[in-house]
Amino acid sequence: MADSARPHLLLVNLGTPAAPTPEAVRAFLAEFLSDPAVVDLPRWIWRPILNRMVLRSRPQRVAEMYESIWSDRGSPLRVATEQMADAARARGACTVSTAYRYGEPSLDAEMQRLARDHRGPVIVVPLFPQRTDATTGTAFRRAREAAARAGIADRCREALVSPSDAGYISALAARCRETFAGTPPDHLVISFHGIPVRYDRREGREYTRDCTATTDALLAALDWPRGKATLAYQSKFGPEPWLTPATAPVIEELARKGVRRVAVVTPGFLTHGLETLEEIGIRARESFVAAGGAELRLVGTVEDHPAMIDSLVRLATPEIGAAACIA
Predict the structure, then answer these.
(1) DSSP 8-state class, residue 33
(2) What are the backbone dihedrals phi and psi of residue 95, each rounded to the nearest 5 degrees, phi first?
(3) How far is it, in rounded angstroms, from Cα 92 to Cα 72?
(4) What is the C-alpha separation between 67 and 52, in angstroms, rounded?
(5) Dihedral of CA 68/174/127/130: which sign?
(6) Do 303 and 80 contact (CB within 8 A), yes or no?
(7) At what angle do helices 166-180 and 306-316 cross, to 10 degrees?
(8) Mapping DSSP to helix (H, G, I), strand (E, B) and coil, where does residue 152 land?
(9) What's the CATH number for 166-298?
(10) Which residues, listed in sequence order, are joined to residue 95 by a DSSP beta bridge?
C-alpha cells in the first residue's frame, strides 16, 4: 500500500513557545490563555485581565523558566514529541506526524498538508490519557475544525489512550523502575496537572476518575504499597479552587514528617516539559530539600518507550484501532 493511502497517526501535544524568550512566550501564552477551554471566564472580563496584566507580567518570568530547561536541540516537549513520532513511524504500520494545540506546527497547518499529501484515514490522538475539556476536549475540537476547513473531516477519526492502557502503564512502571535504580524511594508522589474544581464537577468528575484509574493501575504494576504513595495535582493558575491535594505542599509536608527520599512521577505528561522539568525537577526539589528532605527524584516521562509506542500505533491500525476510536 502506498504511504499516502495508509492510516496516518496524528499525535497532538499541548505545544511550546518557539524560543525561551519573553516575545515567544507572550505569543504562546496569548494563544493558550485565550482558549475558553483553558480559561472559561466571560471574554469581556478575561480579555482585559489577560492583555493588561497577565501578558505584561508573566512572559519574562516564564521565559526564564523555559531557559532553565531548554536544550541545544530546542524545547524538550517538542524534541520528545518528535522522538515519539519517529519511533511510531519506524514500526511501519502507519504514517505519522505531529501537531500542537498551541504553537507550531498547528493543527490547521497539518490538516492542510494531509489534505494535499495523504489519501488514507487520519487518526487524531491527543497525548493526554486523562480526559478533560482543557486537554483532550479542546484538541479534538480544534482538530475537527481544522479537518473541516481542509476538506478531510470524513477521513478523520478520534482515538484516546486509555488512562489504564496496558502499554502506557507498562511504560510508566518501567520509567519508575529506571529512576529507582534498585533503591526505592521512601514515598512516591503521583502528580497530575490540576484543573479548577468546578471544571471537574461540570464534566462529571471524569478527569479525577481517570487520574485515579491511572494511579491504581500504576501502583498495581509496581506492586507498590498504597500507604507509601500520594496522588496530587500541580500547576495551579488563578485564584479559584483547584483540585487537591496540591503537589508542592504534599512534597514539603513529607519532608517535614521525616521522609528522606521521594520520587515524583507525572503520568499526565507523556513528554517532559516546563511542568515536569522546572516545576518538579527544579522548584519542587529545592522546596523538598529546604523542608528537610534529602533527595527528590523526578521519574522520566514515557515518551518513546516501546510499550507506549506500541499502544499508539495500535490506535492507528484499522482492525485494532477502530474499536478504540470515538467517531
Answers:
(1) T
(2) -85, 160
(3) 29
(4) 24
(5) negative
(6) yes
(7) 170
(8) coil
(9) 3.40.50.1400
(10) 8
The radius of gyration of the chain from alpha carbons, rounded to an integer in Å, stands at 20
Instruction: Parse the chain into domains and list their residue ranges.
Output: 3-162+305-326, 166-298
Size (the chain), residues: 327
pTM over 0.85: yes
Contact 189, 232 (CB under 8 A): yes
CA distance 319 to 325: 11
pLDDT in tens, the chain (327 residues): 567 778 999 999 999 999 999 999 999 999 999 999 999 999 999 999 999 999 999 999 999 999 999 999 999 999 999 999 999 999 999 999 999 999 999 999 999 999 999 999 999 999 999 999 999 999 999 999 999 999 999 999 999 999 999 999 999 999 999 999 889 999 999 999 999 999 999 999 999 999 999 999 999 999 999 999 999 999 998 899 999 999 999 999 999 999 999 999 999 999 999 999 999 999 999 999 999 999 999 999 999 999 999 999 999 985 443 333 332
Among 3.40.50.1400, 3.10.50.40, 3.40.50.1910, 3.20.20.10, what is the CATH number of 3-162+305-326?
3.40.50.1400
CB neighbours of 1 closer than 8 A, spacing ≥ 6? none
